[in-house]
Amino acid sequence: MTSPRRRFQTFDDPSHRKGPERVAALRAAMREAGVGGFVVPRADEHQSEYVPANAERLAWLTGFTGSAGTAVVLVEKAAIVVDGRYTLQAPEQVDTAVFTVVPLADKTPDAWIAETISPDTVLGYDPWLHTADSVARLERAVAKAGASLKAVPNLVDAVWAGRPPQPAGRVGLQPLDYAGESAEAKLTRIRDKLAAAGGDALVISDPHNLAWAFNIRGTDVAHTPLALGYAIVPREGQPSLFLSSTDLAPEVRTALGALAELEPRASFEQALGALAGRPAKVRVDVATAGSALKEIIVSSGGAADIGPDPITGMKAVKNDAEIAGTRAAHRRDGLAVTRFLAWLQRSGGNDVSEIEAVEALEDFRAESGLLREVSFPTISGSGQNGAIVHYRVTIGSDRRVQPGELFLIDSGAQYADGTTDITRTVSIGTPTEEMRDRFTRVLQGHIAIARVVFPKGTTGAQIDAFARRALWEAGLDFDHGTGHGVGSFLSVHEGPQRIAKTGAVALEAGMILSNEPGYYRAGAYGIRIENLILVEERAITGGERPMLGFETLTLAPLDRALIEPSLLSPAEAEWLDAYHARVRETLGPDLDPETRAWLEDATRPIGPSA
């Protein structure tokens, strides 16, 4: 008998509302360190979204398991600030007798500090977990209150008994067939960017950029194939690569040794100080570098040039091989999701739990034999749980799907040739008129993004309103961005591109983003429709400017039972029917007869002849 496959997700509840004991221990450490407060961001030294277990300080302290948030603990008060994705989740997970839950839309951590901290208080922070910009904001906040700021060793680590060790997983090479460009060529382009900016060296602090530049992938972090570490790329000469892991096969070590000096992670600070002391102007990434790097450079006599890592923008524009890979990954993933949706409908939702749905979808993906990981923990929300934007089902929260409810499942996969992310909302039984109205308005926003054509130089912020118009007309909206960037067998949330009110970066051909408007009725249901889209050039007959548009990459049917055709314009109905025809024609030949028949019915035209 073969052993069962190891799953990429667990359903344990790590929170269980932490009591005041851990906060009390932190306050004791604060007294010993001579500070009256301490800031605990959800971050590691690379400012990553998904952090290793030993960096889950916010979850350990508060019980909050979301991917973004900041706690501030003072002697007598404490708060946790979360964004719109987590305003429902946070109060369920944290002890609200200890922490005040503050929505980010109402108040930033800096604003809460400025209003709450007492004069003459010393606020402590770990300089590895805050960028130079975030430290500057903290300095302004404490100055406003007549307090002060002090860098200290991490005080959570001082009281965290049983803290997991630093990960050091195996590091492998990303094949050229998938990467599309050699590491040597990438490093040459990086040096050209560095020279154009007048810098002497670049510190790569973002593990995603490290993975892209050296064509490596790792296993140090769940869901994203990262090898943690740093690199120093001089304008002239060989780079130095400082990986946390030493688990490199001989062929990997040989390949990387031809590109860079391989050094232990422990020697990074000394090497950075020696470089800066020449002296040198060193570019430090404004988004991911801890302020500790700036202090090392400055104290060694160098100049810290804080600005964007040029690799971030280079990585965002996918080459032909990466685009071909992601198309293949989405076709493979679409087959798995379609089999799952057919399975779910055939079951009628009867006696299917949220956890069972997650496990079934992962199994359908694993049948390809090519699944490397899930790209994030699956959001599987039935009924009122679907209204929690980043809901994570646990054994304690798991519930059965009930007739008359909506079921929202947001999931993704990591394949060696691409990263996927897809959300489908389905009705269990007969939906209400309100559900159909809200779903169709979300669909109209989704179609508006899919169909939009825009001039080069347009930012995501300029496009975001297209996704909201139909909701706005009914006095409705959603509190998250419409789309995030996506990597190539890398992060499912990749910058700098995004479609959101804060999306200030111009979109370029080759960028991949999500298209995911939604609607959430607290305590009742949630709706989200998500496909991934590729920015591509568009030729407009008679046009005067270079234009761009989107190719939809994701292939899986939408629930026709939730669509109110009378709300759709002829152009919207035409797009939907064309999309469903493409799904049917692309996936149908590789499905078993029963699932193919289900797909034929699920993708029937929505127009008057339906």
TrEMBL record:
The keyword Protease applies. One of its GO terms (cellular component) is cytoplasm. Residues 326-537 form the Peptidase M24 domain. The keyword Hydrolase applies. It is an enzyme of class 3 (hydrolase). Gene3D superfamilies: Creatinase/methionine aminopeptidase superfamily (3.90.230.10), Creatinase/prolidase N-terminal domain (3.40.350.10). Residues 546-606 form the Peptidase M24 C-terminal domain. Residues 22-158 form the Creatinase N-terminal domain. Belongs to the peptidase M24B family. This is Aminopeptidase. It comes from Methylobacterium brachythecii.
